[in-house]
Amino acid sequence: MHRTSLIGLTLAGLTLAAVAGAQSPPENVVLLKNLDRGEAYSGNWGYTAPNGTELAISGTASGTSFINATDPVNAYEVAFIPGPNSTWREMATYGQYCYIVTETVGAALQVVSLANPLQPTLVATLNPPAFFYATAHEIKIDQQTGYCYVAGTSPQAGQPARGLVILDLNVSPTNPPMRGNWNTEYVHDLSLQDGKAYCACISDGRIFVLDVSQPGTPPVVGTPWSWPNSFPHNTWPSADGSFLVTTDENTGGHLRMWNISNLNSPTQTDEWISPTGAIVHNAYFRGNICYMSHYRDGLRVVDVSDPNNIQPVGWYDTHPGVGSGFSGAWGCYCFAADPSIVYITDIQTGTYILRFTNEFGTLQGTVRDAGTQAPIAGAEVDIVGATTLTLNTNAQGFYSALVPSGGYTVNCTLFGYEPGSAPANVATGQTTTLDFNLVALASGSLTGVVQSTSFAPIAGASVVIETTPLVTTTNASGVYTFASVPAGSYNVTAAKFGFSSQTLPVTVVASQQVTRDFSLTLAHYAADMETIPGAWTVTGNASTGQWVRVNPNGTGGGQIQPEDDHTPAPGVFCWVTGQGTPGGGIGDADVDNGSTTLTTHVFDLSLLADPVLSYWRWFVNDGNGSADDPWVVEVSSNGGTNWVAVENTFTAQAFWREITVRVTDYVTPNSQFRVRFTARDLTPGSIVEAGVDDFQIYDAQGTTGVIAPGAPPASAPMLLGNFPNPFHPGTAIRFDLTQPAPVKLRIFDAAGRTVRLLVDGPLAAGRQSVSWDGRNEASLPMASGVYYYRIEAPGFSESRSMVLSK
After folding, report:
1. Is 714 a residue whose pLDDT tops 50?
2. In CATH, which of 2.40.280.10, 3.30.565.10, 2.130.10.10, 1.25.40.20 is domain 184-358?
3. Which 3 state secondary structure label does DSSP give 664?
4. pTM for the full model?
């Protein structure tokens, strides 16, 4: 779903108050007070006293500031508790106490009494050797049990490394004993609810859920999960425990919403990323609203009433700069007695007390077939105002959006139907219903046979009607059929691995059947890697992660090293950079301390008129948030003496992507043609994994439809469909880009829930192909049924359906 900022929308009652130097006007958020001690700030929290006094608590470089925020417009500091000088300072409250941790030796745990909230008093400073750790990164307290969870601890010399430490505040609130710990992974931050701890293990790139219902060593609940470019900083569950938000603290990092009703298979329902590129830090639920401290964006507010459709509803820019650096809003607290109040700590500009004003209404409706009145799933609904919000209907044909009050034009489109359009007026706090009945276009049918040049039928070939979602697969006799195609002129492409593809023009006439046959030429060379492909060699000085031909074990939840090869079943083998262990972490057997190169044997291309090289590759170089090592593919026309690069990119793409290269664009084809693939991890180190599969060379003479680097793309972005469809276990989604662009490609189930995010980042211009293995974000197989995929690029979005059939 397309996410747009609220900038430019006319919001009733919008107050344009802003601190000096703020870069953008606020949206639905009002500044009440800004206090600044003139030093760097860090984490924050809050406290509501039994007598109604409200405290905003802010960490600074030299200590902790306690602010009387009962009257937020006239808020003032009532106490400052010094502590060790530290960039990181976090705090939490329980009962009448505030507990403070830092990453500097000298105050492992400070305990501040809030018995008189207007006179906070330091009552204890706990340190080793009597205490259980020396420094810590984060602290959270379970308000139901009184257990305190201290994350990211470091020991004093001679102490054991305990990791996540569990303290019992019930026994002694000023000198709590340790009741347990967990040190399997480094826990950066966590949240607590109903006997579970949701741990953001940022270094491992995964979320672990622990059963903390009993003290001791908490066991893991369900299956830890990861996702592409995972760098989880914090977590927070919904009030009913059905959903969890996570944040990725890296450039381009996302707020993600997860359905955690089944912890063995959490599924992402949606995600949101700031249009400014600012890095997200902390996120918390308050009802159906999620508040985020978003570094250089300041405060960001999104509505999560519909977990499948996160919508931005507010913004207050606390930071004078822009970009993706680690400066600006650090801490966020949204749990004061007044649900509209939010506290933010900005590293450079101090404490902010803000009020979020919700001036939105709901626009919803159902899309049906005008003839049958059956609900239509996957229809695109564009809500057009000062900006455009794009939604898709769910399996019941329903859509719903929270939008600012005002007038809109709503457009509804789906391939095979005439588009619909209607006006809508939305009032604050009200629900407006707008239904659509779409009229089906007049259609004909298309059929034919795909065969080899020796007239042998080709089973399992894909046949795609370009610029449409229509795709099918030939049967055992090489026959394909499209029962219903809207009347018009198309290009139709037939393809099968091991053959050159062919594209032919076809005109479909309403109420008539058109026949078009295809003749595919056998590829000059094709290797699906199920057997040794020839005299291919592996060289390089990497200490780990050298190329191997294996059935890969996925690492980082299958998002770093792939869990599966690209070849459809029964194929399982491919080349990967090191074989990880089943369920391994993000750095398991990746490329380290050098490079590894996979080089093919020599090919004789002298008899090919227009040779095309095609291969599928997987590349990750930013699994830990750092992308500093390129993927390089080179070709040679003299047996390997000289090389010419056809790929040299830092862009990570944790999915199988087809690369098609017209050889003559780079070298003169002859009898000494070779290819080599290089992945490297040089100083500073990062997480690097690569894969190669389904390699072939064929002659493109006499065929069309091959888009190579440098070839002009189509006049507009096009979603070409997926093949095969129906499919099991995997399918490939193809699309064309007119120019390099950031692309998002997601899989949804029939209820509109996000199943898998396949692409989220920049892609080059030209023909793209992305594989889906039928698994969710946790790498668990999905059930048979109808699924939808949606591509979004600047100025373009489209959705199609596909069928997983087991």
Report:
1. no
2. 2.130.10.10
3. helix
4. 0.64
